[in-house]
Design a protein that fits this description.
Strand content of chain B: under 5%
Mean pLDDT of chain B: 86
Radius of gyration of chain A: 27 Å
Order of helices and strands of chain B: HHHHEHHHH
Number of strands of chain A: 1
Radius of gyration of chain B: 17 Å
Order of helices and strands of chain A: HEHH
Structural class of chain B: mainly alpha
Number of helices of chain B: 8
Largest interface: A-B, 29 and 41 residues
Low-confidence stretches of chain A: none
Largest sheet of chain A: none
Number of strands of chain B: 1
Distance between the termini of chain B: 52 Å
Structural class of chain A: mainly alpha
Shape of chain A: elongated
CATH class of the largest domain in chain B: Mainly Alpha
Mean pLDDT of chain A: 77
Oligomer: heterodimer
CATH topology of the largest domain in chain B: Rna Polymerase Sigma Factor, Chain: A
Chain lengths: 96, 169
Amino acid sequence: MWNSEQKNIWQDIKNTWNEQPQSEKINIQVLQLINEFKSKVSQFEKDSINSDIATLKLNWDKTKRNNVSQFEKDSIKKDINIISEFIKKVINKFKR
Amino acid sequence: MKDKKPMTKTFEQLLENNKEKIYRICKIYAVSPLEPQDLFQEVIFAIWKSLSTFKGNSSIDTWIYRITLNVCLRSKQKSEKTYNKTLQLESIQFIPVEIPIENNQQEKYNALTSCISKLNNENKSIIILYLEELKYKEIAKITGLTENHIAVKMKRIKKNLLDCITNKI
């Protein structure tokens, strides 16, 4: 009896959840949406690059203060180039 | 009119079939200044980005729920500063609809959502998936918990939720 009553209560709650009053109709233009996404992704990537560059710059300033050797400087430069190339590839991929 | 690519068609179908349930979940997790509409756009963006990685290991429904809940949970960690960077998509419109006011139904719905909002994130996810008619097995897949753990938690969540709703109505 208790179980059946509980079942009914929960079915009522489920109905309340699934049949909630729709105060808004969602209209999606898919083709336009995909174009918007493509442009947003590239902007997102640009923001990421700026953030990466800022981080690198900060680290670079710290490194400079610590009087690093020429070898380390060359190594960092090489790493930055690799990262930049990689980021460019990612951007190109999303632009396609 | 241009023919749509298969990927576009799949995406369109997927949105059509799932937009209402995604929005239902967004309404629970959206906390000011983030609006449910903003959260909905973030979820759709995340689905689009992940579409090519869907391997079919789980059902598409399970996959959609997992992405939706992940985005919603992440959104709670967003500060007001990052809120300014949320998507503003013109291709998704929310058109207000005149609905007949049924006080009783509205009151029940408000009580339910208010009580769900009081639960912690994990319990909130579990009860939402339960209300969406998912089986414990599917809830376990989405949340990463075991079925037994879900069953134990459900007992407590149901009791808390029922007490809370009863107090409100």
